Please model this.
Amino acid sequence: MSSLKQELWEWTKAIVLGLVVVMIIRIFFFTNYAVSGESMMPILQDQDKVIVSKIAYTLGEIDRLDVLVFHNDENEDYVKRVIGIPGDIITYENDQLYVNKEKVDEPYLNTHPAFTNPNEDLTGDFTLESLTGNMRVPEDSYFVLGDNRRHSLDSRYFKFVKADQVVGQVVLRYWPLPNLTINFMTARPE
Model:
C-alpha cells in the first residue's frame, strides 16, 4: 500500500472510531436539548441549549429541586423542577413551599416580579391532595413545577411524572455562551 493510501486508511479509521464514540456517548450518557417556551424562566429562557445527563439518575437518585427533562408523550419532552419525590407531602401556602410540613426555600424564584410583590401570588395555594387526589407523591413518581409558575404546564395539570418518563438531569446550559450555567438553584445562575 502506498503511503497516501495508508494515511487515508488511518484517517478513515480515526473518523469512524470518533463517530462511534460520539454516538455511544450521546445514546447512553449525555444528550442536548433546546428549551422551548418560558415555563422555566428566569433560570432557563426560550431557545437556551442545555446538556442533559442520562446517567445522573443511573448512578444516583432524583433529588428534590433538580431540573430534569422528561417525556410527556411520544412527541414532546418537558424541562421542569422536581418539587416532590416519592413519599413527599406537598403544600403551597402564601407562595411558600412546604414539603412534609417543613418550609423549603426556593432561591431560583427570587427575581420573578410576583415573588417580590406581596400583593401577587406566583404559585397559588394548593395541597398535593387537592390537585391529584393523593396525600403523598406515589412510588416511582415525581411532582414537578416550572419556575415560571404562572406560565407552566406542570404537575398541577398532568399530576405526576413517572420514573420511566425521565430522560435525565439538566447539568449545563451552553448556549447562549454568555449565559453558560452549571448551577440551577439561584435566580441568576453562574
